[in-house]
Amino acid sequence: MGAGNRPNRGGGGGGGDRGGRFDQGGGRGGFDRVMERLQTIQGPTTDLPSLDSTGMKFSGRSRLYIGNLSNDITEESLKQMLTAFGEVGEIFYNREKKFAFLRMGTKYEAEKAKRELDGQVKSGQAIKVRFAPHQAAIKVQNLGPWVSNELLHKAFSIYGDIERAMVFVDDRGRTKGEGIVEFVRKPSALEAVKRCTECCYFLTASIRPVIAELDESTEDDDGLQEKMLIKRNQDYQFEREVG
């Protein structure tokens, strides 16, 4: 792994030699913590140990948006409502605008809460439950064929603690050259994007600088469910009665 400056438009470029500098965004007072961490992980990256696949509790992937709440629902009653599906972590509740963001203990618990509560009527209002975008996720591109989940995790750990790092593959298990890194904290994601944009970051011997950008997509891909249709509409009755 190595770092170098982005080439200038007028030609010539910064180096990508092992041990190169991040000239942009250095640390305060000339001390660069990211570069210090980079120095500690440089060297051969063969036979990296497998990552722990159990997943972190209360991660960004288990974060839910709950909207259309009635006025009589308090933060405490909302927490009690969700406790039936698992552990409930931090809650941000805007009672005036009737919505909340919260984290469940695991993604499985979040999926269960979403499945059971979405559309449920409380005090005359149908609750809306959706997965919220991960606040500290980045999409990485231009990955070489020898970049694995483990190498991606190791390389981006210099920016901060990571919840998940994954290289996307096709149906034959071959890399698509892109992946995702989900950090614990958003400043880590912002720092990673800034460094990869202003400088060059190489994960292997190939001169293929990583391209990174914030990723605000969600895994909320339920499509158009039956319960979302307005069944009182005459067109619905006409279209469906024939079958």
Give the structural class: alpha+beta
Rounded radius of gyration (Å):
23 Å
Biggest pleated sheet: 4 strands, antiparallel
The stretches of 5 or more residues where confidence is low (pLDDT under 50) are 8-29
| Largest sheet strand order | 3-4-2-7
CATH structural fold name of the largest domain: Alpha-Beta Plaits
Distance between the termini: 60 Å
What is the element string, with H for helices and E for strands? Answer: EHEHEEHEEEEHEEHEEH
Name the CATH superfamily classification of the largest domain.
RRM (RNA recognition motif) domain
**Contiguous helical run count:** 6
Which overall shape is indicated by the principal axes computed on the Cα atoms?
elongated
What's the CATH class label of the largest domain? Answer: Alpha Beta
What does this structure look like?
- Helices cover 24% and strands 25% of the residues.
- The protein is α+β, with helices and mostly antiparallel strands and 243 residues long.
- It has two domains: 2-44 and 135-214, 2-Layer Sandwich (Alpha-Beta Plaits); 60-132, RRM (RNA recognition motif) domain (Alpha-Beta Plaits, 2-Layer Sandwich), CATH 3.30.70.330.
- It has a four-stranded antiparallel beta sheet with strand order 3-4-2-7, with helices on one face.
- Strand 9 (162-169) and strand 10 form a beta hairpin.
